[in-house]
Amino acid sequence: MTSAPAPTSTVATPAPAEVPSHGATLQVTKGHGTQNDFVLLDDRTGAVELSAALVRELADRRAGLGGDGVIRVVASERLPEGAVVLAEEPAATWFMDYRNADGSVAEMCGNGVRVFAAYLERLGLWDAADGELALGTRAGVRRVRRVPVPAGIPDDVWYAVDMGRWSVPGGAAAVEAGADADVEVAGLPVARAALSIDVGNPHTVLALPDEAELAAADLTRAPVVTPVPPYGTNVELVVPLGEERTPEGTVVGRVRMRVHERGVGETRSCGTGACAAALAVRTWAGAGAPDEWLVDVPGGTVRVTALPDGHVELAGPAVLVADATVDLTALTAGR
Ligand SMILES: N[C@@H](CCC[C@H](N)C(=O)O)C(=O)O
User: Fold this and answer.
1) Is residue 266 part of a domain?
2) Which residues hold substrate (predicted)?
């Protein structure tokens, strides 16, 4: 699996104003998964010209609605990337078109998939009672189902997502060494060894010894990764917290994580990042490490499970908090 740059050519840029061709307003919904927040757009027929500028304007926390990303629901058959997905899974009729807050296109968003599923339920396009949802992403098909909220977690609804096959791009040598990169983080005195993990998009994970170091890291500046990842990377800082037993009797690992997301900056959660963090700590721990991990992020807790078939599952909440009408003339005024 590679994290090739996602194509941008499907998104036409209107000129001169960045206004969708279908009108002067846009119906959107605001949602989040463990406070990784998104502006959601129902564009089933692919009528909206979702330019990078429009994404930045919607995601702007002062002049727009605000979000770490923008998610568009579009019929898979309307996008070239969707055709690839439909060839793999004809049931994946809806495509998650994911954009980072800076307007860049990303292959995948783990928290976004759950929020996308909640949004499809809201739109009447999926009923969890009917069984699993297959959806398209630029990283391939993802499968979602509703699952019980674990004991002790104050969320109303959880979804579990099969996030597909994960890999260590550096191969056996990186697994053996436990690292294939160095990362300099502002606020921390020395560069740290880190491990690259691909979960459909690129991640670089470094372990810190304690929570004081985690708190000291300054993620207002992007960490510097060496060698420079060809398509950029998301950087996760993790503190392993050991193992515990759930009320159901399962032994799980636990980690605390902060993240600097490619195309965004520090966010309060990253689902693919949580998968990468748990998988890196599990790799470092070696044989006998748990398959199930709880990942505590500033915005809540998600669960990551390494599956026997080489896939990884991510479970966590999804919340829709508002429906809004965006005045596109006002949104773009003065820019
Ligand atoms: N927050 C997302 C990841 C979004 C994409 C990422 N910033 C990238 O560019 O790869 C998640 O929950 O996984």
Assistant:
1) yes
2) 36, 100, 110-111, 201, 234, 261-262, 271-272
